[in-house]
TrEMBL record:
Record-given protein name: Stress-response A/B barrel domain-containing protein
Source organism of the structure: Penicillium diatomitis
Gene3D superfamilies documented for this protein: 3.30.70.100
PANTHER family for this protein: PTHR33178, STRESS-RESPONSE A_B BARREL DOMAIN-CONTAINING PROTEIN
Assembly and oligomerization: Homodimer.
Residues in Stress-response A/B barrel domain copies: 1-94
TM stretches of this protein: none
Length: 113
């Protein structure tokens, strides 16, 4: 979850989202499954605690997640388009089984063979 400082221009936030979406092409992202959305439409807005954008990414394992976090591309996007405008950030990594991916409409049949 990403929270920008209030004075951050909308165009800057939109550029950040656009650039984040390019990270789905990194080989450490499983089947290009990287979802970036925002701004938040939570009502009332206070329930989202000011966080405006979210990212959900899929990786085969912890090694792939670590590769994503350490990639030069990730560093470029975050250092150029988020860190200078950052108010707060929440990172919550978790593991799921293949069945959990069905909840988001990802077919797991090719992985269940």
């Amino acid at each position: 979850l990403f929270k920008f400082r209030p004075e951050t221009q909308i165009s800057t936030r939109e550029k950040f989202v656009t650039e984040l979406k390019t990270l789905k092409y990194l080989p450490c992202v499983k089947d290009q499954r990287l979802i970036v959305r925002g701004p938040s439409i939570t009502d009332p807005a206070s329930k989202s605690k000011g966080f405006q954008h979210a990212l959900v990414g899929y990786h085969d394992d912890q090694v792939a997640l670590d590769m994503y976090q350490a990639s030069p591309e990730h560093a470029r996007v975050t250092s150029q388009y988020f860190i200078p405008y950052k108010k707060d950030l929440v990172r919550f990594d978790f593991e799921t089984d293949l069945g959990g991916e069905d909840l988001l409409g990802f077919s797991t049949s090719s992985h269940d063979a």
